[in-house]
Automatic annotation (TrEMBL):
Residues 177-217 form the Pyridoxine 5'-phosphate oxidase dimerisation C-terminal domain. The keyword Iron does not apply. This is Pyridoxine/pyridoxamine 5'-phosphate oxidase. It comes from the Bacteria. Gene3D superfamilies: Electron Transport, Fmn-binding Protein, Chain A. Homodimer.
Length: 217
């Protein structure tokens, strides 16, 4: 370990403009839209729609993984996955969920907490049809999160499916595959500043509207 890199020596000073409640959109989705646009325009950020989804078992054992945001609007944030996966089974048993958008090169992060609900089959099918043929087959080929004997097993399954559904044919939506919509209860916009005096503004759902509170960094 003598030449190991020591993370304790790594320090960044964030130089950004301050963020006040007056700068924010009236609702968190509008604010997210504005930051998401800025993030997508930044060459420093690859896959601005990549987010960390945290779930937990009913007895509180947490787990996290990255997924891609595929849609958002006033109803919430949507991603697609396998319902039989670890996250799928955890969300089915316990819909409490957290999302994290790690936009580090901009000294920003967005944190969402809420409840996950499954998207309808129509919405799932509409999205599935937009996926490339190979990804459609991949969704069938992988029983996500189960233990497999080898990579060969996965490739063999994929080849079998490719023979069954040639590129000219419509691939049906796998029954265990679909979307989750995260209906937000809180959405925090975090922006880094010098001397660790960061801005943290959190929207909290208040009936039909939202209130904004500032949190200590
Ligand atoms: C950049 C990136 C994007 C990903 N997007 C998705 C996605 O949209 N849906 C998905 O099910 N898994 C996605 N994955 C894979 C997940 O991180 C994870 O390995 C998989 O969903 C199984 O997670 P689970 O066993 O915790 O359920 C992505 C991984 C990375 C690194």
């Amino acid at each position: 370990m003598t030449d190991a890199l020591d993370p304790a020596d790594m320090r960044e000073q964030y130089r950004t403009k301050e963020l006040t409640a007056a700068d924010l959109a009236p609702d968190p989705i509008g604010q997210f839209a504005s930051w998401f646009k800025e993030t997508a325009a930044s060459p420093a950020i690859h896959e601005p729609n990549a987010m960390v989804v945290s779930t937990a078992t009913p007895d509180g054992r947490p787990s996290s993984r990255t997924v891609l945001l595929k849609h958002y609007d006033d109803a919430g944030f949507v991603f697609f996955t396998n319902y039989g996966s670890r996250k799928g089974t955890e969300l089915t048993a316990n819909p409490q969920v957290a999302l994290l958008f790690p936009w580090h090169p901009l000294a920003r992060q967005v944190l969402v907490t809420g409840r996950a609900v499954r998207t309808g089959r129509e919405e799932t099918a509409a999205y599935f049809r937009t996926r490339p043929h190979g990804s459609q087959l991949g969704a069938w080929a992988s029983e996500q999160s189960s233990v497999i004997a080898s990579r060969e097993e996965l490739l063999t399954r994929y080849e079998e499916l490719a023979a069954r559904y040639p590129a000219s044919e419509q691939v049906p939506v796998p029954p265990e595959w679909g979307g989750f919509r995260v209906v937000p209860e809180t959405v925090e916009f975090w922006q880094g500043h010098e001397n660790r005096l960061h801005d943290r503004l959190r929207y909290v759902r208040d009936g039909e509207s939202w209130r904004v509170e500032r949190l200590a960094p």
